[in-house]
Write a structure and sequence with these properties.
This protein is of the alpha+beta class. It is built from eleven helices and 18 strands.
């Protein structure tokens, strides 16, 4: 059955597309490879990501989103057009797909319009914009429509979103442009400062995934990884061994900013909702939720129960899909004819 409408989690690192009745139907890196001389797009998604750090001067692998917002409008529109055509097919004069797309809660009006314009340039005329923390909470199965305070911390690639939600809306929130990418940058800088070794983005990410941790755990203790890079002293390739404790030290500053965002949100929360958070705890979503020990770190710093959502990488896309289904259902109800009212019988016997 061909899809008519989709929901998109437009992330700094990855873009996910949800199709009704099919779940996540596309999961690709938010990367585009461009020939800088002819301005021709050579690859999108995983094929483009594989080119990062390995391209000649004539080819550039571009990540068009930075810190959760559009940094390169034209490349973002091209990327969206590619993903939409891959899931919905080429748009026709008669096709009018509806798309729900997620953005960070802290975006400005200009940044929000940039998303709408990029979607229009990609051929989409009916767009519903949804905030990421709301989508993440819905996708994590939190009771967002109930009169209960639910707290979600969504740690993505470019932004970390902290929100308390009740009765179908965000009551209070904090958005910081510190997340997975900032962890990678901190690791690269740490290796450069301590070992005088230059490593690439993908190597830094590999260190984070393989041995990274936010809090000392039995799983992370004793972990180490041998990495290669370029020695800044002589310019030659070199190898070093990095330990999990060193990675934990490297990412301590961005982690502190996320903890401060959690504290700030809790301080702004009304007492009744804060009491709900004490009872039900904090739910972690996004790729950052998979960092070893991050739940223990937040639990230690806030003294609140913390849980990691099922499939944290998919929560935003799943929540956007739920909103899409709600829109479709509301439209079907509008299209249903109203029942005819019975005419009173005025005939006299």
């Amino acid at each position: 059955m061909r899809l008519k409408n989709i929901a998109i989690d437009l992330g700094t690192v990855n873009t996910l597309v949800y199709g009704k009745g099919k779940g996540i139907i596309l999961r690709e890196p938010s990367v585009v490879a461009v020939d800088v001389e002819s301005d021709v797009v050579l690859a999108v998604g995983e094929k483009a990501r594989e080119m990062i750090g390995r391209t000649p001067d004539t080819i550039e692998a571009v990540c068009p989103l930075h810190d959760g917002v559009i940094a390169d409008f034209d490349i973002t529109a091209t990327m969206l057009k590619h993903f939409i055509q891959e899931t919905l097919g080429k748009p026709s004069h008669f096709s009018k797909p509806k798309i729900v797309i997620c953005v960070p809660s802290g975006v400005t009006g200009v940044e929000r319009r940039a998303v709408e314009d990029a979607m229009a340039d990609a051929g989409v005329r009916q767009v519903e914009i949804m905030t990421e923390p709301m989508a993440a909470a819905m996708g994590a199965g939190l009771p967002v429509m109930d009169p209960i305070g639910s707290m979600v911390v969504d740690i993505g690639g470019g932004t970390s979103e902290v929100a308390v939600i009740s009765l179908g809306d965000i009551v209070t929130s904090t958005s910081v442009r510190v997340a997975g990418n900032k962890f990678d940058e901190s690791i690269s800088q740490y290796v450069k400062d301590k070992y005088n070794l230059l490593i690439g983005e993908r190597t830094a990410e590999e260190l984070k995934l393989q041995i990274g941790s936010a809090y000392p755990t039995e799983e992370s203790n004793g972990l180490s990884l041998k990495v290669k890079g370029r020695n800044l002293a002589d310019g030659l390739p070199a190898y070093i061994t990095i330990t999990a404790a060193e990675i934990r030290e490297a990412i301590s500053d961005p982690l502190s900013e996320i903890i401060d965002a959690v504290r700030n949100t809790l301080q702004k929360t009304e007492p009744e909702l804060a009491a709900d958070v004490i009872d039900h705890g904090i739910t972690l979503t996004g790729g950052g939720a998979l960092l070893r020990g991050i739940d223990e770190l937040i639990k230690t710093e806030t003294s609140l129960p913390v849980r990691i959502a099922d499939s944290p990488l998919d929560c935003v896309a799943l929540g956007a899909g739920m909103r899409l289904q709600g829109i479709e259902q509301a439209e079907r109800q509008k299209q249903q004819p109203e029942p005819k009212k019975s005419e009173p019988n005025d005939s006299k016997e």
